[in-house]
Amino acid sequence: MWGKPRQPPMGHKEFTALLDSEGRVVESKALRERVFYGGIEHQLRREVWPFLLGYYAYDSTYAEREYLRSVKRMEYATLKQQWQSISPEQAKRFTKYRERKGLIDKDVVRTDRAFEYYEGDDNLHVNSMRDILLTYSFYNFDLGYCQGMSDYLSPILFVMEDESESFWCFVALMERLGPNFNRDQNGMHTQLFALSKLVELLDSPLHNYFKENDCLNYFFCFRWILIQFKREFEYEKTMQLWEVMWTHYLSEHFHLYVCVAVLKRCRSKIMGEQMDFDTLLKFINELSGHIDLDSTVRDAEALCIEAGENGAASIPPGTPPSLPLDDGTLYPQEDDVL
């Protein structure tokens, strides 16, 4: 059971061939398919990622994108000014701001510091990451900042190399993945529930094993889903996986099929060693750095095709990264006092 072999990454010439004379992507499906099967050459990512993330519209022209960037740059500066203008006196009276700033300051200095782009003291990129996350916490005040967000931002900033552009790409990504960070954890629970349904469909012996061993909550996959395998692969591989998932080519929920693919590969070990929840959690965490990306993506593709409509039907509507169902409240708050 294998998906198609991976192709070499898409280069600039090939990408340009997919655009009309004014810069519109002629057929977004062809672009998404190409990225799904081969990924993108690194230097081209900054042009293509904004499309995949939904920051650029596929039918936008070169001129429209140029205009969008300049408008958004001003908008970003305005948003950034909101927290930059907070005086020490005001900060004393603004607990939420102090708490969030403290969290962000702590997290950015721990995010990907071994990676060249972010290493060393007084690293400007680390400062940019902090500024973007603080600005985001004002832009989306209801959600604010949560641990794990810096993991998503880090590759985006590395690729875009521009603070404003990175911010808006991050905003677009959070439109889909923000619910991962909801305080009620509903976004995560929905995905873990969908994962259990997919394992039941695609690997019933493993599903039954989890059932018998009180592992049906699938919490051992929490980290995989929360930050989309960011800690499981080296940096470049993470970017390759993300752009595959962001195409939504076979499914918006391809990440769940990636989970199934990895679990399926480990099934004989999990069942053979009679792992209980704690052992399983430790085992899954220790897979980090030992998962082969290409074969996993190919397995996930084959599983996604095998599952077909039954797979899609196993995933509740509105499950991240689907755009949230519009019920008026994007981010349910527990402590509304107003």
How would you describe this structure in keywords?
3 domains, mainly alpha, Cyclin A, domain 1, Rab-GAP-TBC_dom, GTPase activator activity, 338 residues, 16 helices
Overview of the molecule:
The mean pLDDT is 95. The protein is globular, with a radius of gyration of 21 Å. The chain folds into 3 domains: 12-53, no CATH class; 88-176, putative rabgap domain of human tbc1 domain family member 14 like domains (Helicase, Ruva Protein, domain 3, Orthogonal Bundle), CATH 1.10.8.270; 186-313, Ypt/Rab-GAP domain of gyp1p, domain 3 (Cyclin A, domain 1, Orthogonal Bundle), CATH 1.10.472. It contains 16 helices and no strands. By secondary structure, the chain is mainly alpha-helical. One of its GO terms (molecular function) is GTPase activator activity. Acts as a GTPase activating protein for RAB7A. Does not act on RAB4, RAB5 or RAB6. Residues 39-249 form the Rab-GAP TBC domain. It holds the Pfam family RabGAP-TBC.
Layout of helices and strands:
Layout: H1 12-17, H2 28-38, H3 42-53, H4 62-84, H5 88-92, H6 95-108, H7 124-139, H8 149-160, H9 163-177, H10 186-202, H11 204-212, H12 222-226, H13 235-246, H14 254-272, H15 277-285, H16 293-313
Biggest pleated sheet: none
Q: What is the H/E string?
A: HHHHHHHHHHHHHHHH
Structural class: mainly alpha
Quaternary organisation: single chain
Give the strand content.
under 5%
What is the straight-line distance between the termini?
Answer: 55 Å
Number of domains: 3
Low-confidence parts, pLDDT < 50 over ≥5 residues? none
Q: Note the overall shape.
A: globular
> What is the CATH superfamily of the largest domain?
Ypt/Rab-GAP domain of gyp1p, domain 3
Task: Please give the radius of gyration in angstroms.
Answer: 21 Å
Name of the top-level CATH class of the largest domain: Mainly Alpha
Tally of individual helices: 16
What is the β-strand count? 0
What fraction, in percent, of the residue positions are helical?
A: 55-70%
CATH T-level topology of the largest domain: Cyclin A, domain 1
Rounded average pLDDT: 95
Any guess at the CATH architecture of the largest domain?
Orthogonal Bundle
